[in-house]
Amino acid sequence: MAVQQIGAGTNGVLHMVGFTVGNEEFCVDILKVQEIIRMVEITLMPNAPDYVEGVINLRGKVIPVIDFRKRFHLMEGAEIDSQSKRIVVVALHGVTIGIIVDKVSQVIKLSEEQISPTPDAVKGFDSDCIQGVGRLTDKLLIILDLEKLFAQNMLEGVEMAA
Question: Which run of H or E residues covers position 58?
Fold first, then answer.
């Protein structure tokens, strides 16, 4: 499989940040992640899309915060206590946003041999944002393409809501 070189290190190893939402495990290119912070108070924004939780002040910069669970329609699954929740701060298309996840696990290294393409059975709505499925010992990780998940036109709307 020809995997786009995301977070590529030496020897074709991909460096990813792993996180959990509900019962599912995901990972994203480590190069897109600016930082990971604990949950802070979020200021609600009127008339924002339902997946936009609001905005936070991050060292003097106001950034929008998106609930990954709502954006990816993952309303089912185990709810993690708020002590474990994190905000993953990413930069996409020149816009900085925060993404609420249930738990951040670790930096994951995947070789190209550990990555399978997205199965045809799950292709459809929003499936183009799934870059593939990683196999890590006894678990599967959904590899996300954040830039496709949060298309530029969507981010402009989010930024305007902030």
Answer: strand 52-58
